[in-house]
Amino acid sequence: MVDKIERARILWRSRRGLLELDLFLIPFADHCYSKLSASDRAAYRQMLLVDDVDLIDWLKRVSEPETLEFKRVVEQIIHHAETHSTET
To answer: What CATH number labels 17-83?
Structure first.
């Protein structure tokens, strides 16, 4: 269960200042974070500590994360972006 404070923190930390990342991370955090398993939520929080260049490379499939946990979350973010790209 995700409380309001954790949700607000995750939404704030998902704002990267790089539009390309914001377009992936903010909608995902807003719509999906609270539905993730506890392990995937932990992986997402850890991913937010990764350098923006690495994150955008993962999300654009230029490279892959080294850990399975990150790979699983990255695929969920990409899937969400692809299936909800027309939402405003």
So the answer is: 1.10.150.250
